[in-house]
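Need the bound structure for nicotinamide-adenine-dinucleotide, inputs here:
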Amino acid sequence: MLIRVGIVGVGNCASALVQGIEMYKRNPEIEPAVAFKDIGGYTPRDIVFASAFEIDARKVGLDLAEAIFQPPNNATEVYKPPKLGVVVRPGPVLDGVPAGGLVPKVVEGTVEDVVKELNSTNTHVLVNYLPTGAQKAAEAYAEAALRAGVAFVNAMPASIATSGYWQRRFQERGVPLLGDDTQNQIGATVFHKTIIRLLALRGVKIRDTYQINVGGTPDFVNLMYRKGDKEKTKTAAVKMMAEGQEFDAYISPVAYIHFLGDRKIAHTLVEAEIFGGLTIRIEATLDVHDAWNSAAVVTDSVRLAKLAMDRGIGGPLISASAWGFKNPPVHMSPEDAYKAVLEFIEGKRDR
Ligand SMILES: NC(=O)c1ccc[n+]([C@@H]2O[C@H](COP(=O)([O-])OP(=O)(O)OC[C@H]3O[C@@H](n4cnc5c(N)ncnc54)[C@H](O)[C@@H]3O)[C@@H](O)[C@H]2O)c1
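Answer from helper R.:
Posting the output first, comments after.
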């Protein structure tokens, strides 16, 4: 069985996901680098792209395989897929337009257009890659997914999976909801969380910590104007790993540096206190291809969403969201979330 995936926002993350899935499909000898090879019978090669939505006039109307390489996208090109037969359609704009003049000409559609497209393309799971700050636009697409009975994976920081209102609506409609804000395969957040968790488990007192990120993607241009949500989801994720400890945390995307291209560099510092009040200091730097770093987790998430649909489970998926997202309805350490997802896949827990 195939999983028919729709995409909202054909930017860098969409580019990495489409390139990667299509590359693995046409090269069966390459093992996909994902945490879960098989999720209820679904492998990454069972994902097909069914629909796509944009507002940038340079992308709307093109085949998805061509739209992913239009400016301002600058995700590294690893694989050029053939045309996929998926035409990028316009969607509701609202607060979606990224800041910093990234989209010079906007094309607009309605929620009703999105519902019709989701229905006519038989989309099963809709992945939301809107720019940070687009809360109203994210809600418009969540509404469209609900009306069409399509699972919703909220890959960006808008509050959808963590909102009581949306949790209730997806629950009532019997449609799975995952989010919020993808936690990259080996991104700054999961890396930082793991360090803090280890220190907390070893009885170390955390004094303060920072994580400052710089990057050269359009996402970083937008974040320079609208980073509030991102700072919130990242800080909450890290602080939750040392429950009961009070410490200062400064976590922020601090600069767009054009020559970094699709790279993001995260500098992390932790200052803490061990037995006897002595100080330890940990400094780490992570240098990644940002959009590519989100694709594995989304590949897992759409398969977990489809498995829930097959089982008739609607509403927020607790284990899958804790594994794949920075700001899930319930926070878990990376190893607890991994175990919970395995239990979900094996049918030992229902969400
Ligand atoms: N590793 C990562 O890059 C990563 C990790 C976690 C979360 N995220 C989040 O995922 C989101 C997408 O990241 P990206 O790097 O692909 O960003 P991007 O800026 O490259 O892509 C966003 C796309 O959405 C389009 N868009 C804007 N408003 C729209 C609307 N109303 N309807 C349809 N399309 C619209 C833009 O034109 C653009 O093509 C961001 O919010 C980012 O913070 C990214």
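Comments: The first helix runs from residue 12 to 26. The longest strand covers residues 205-215.
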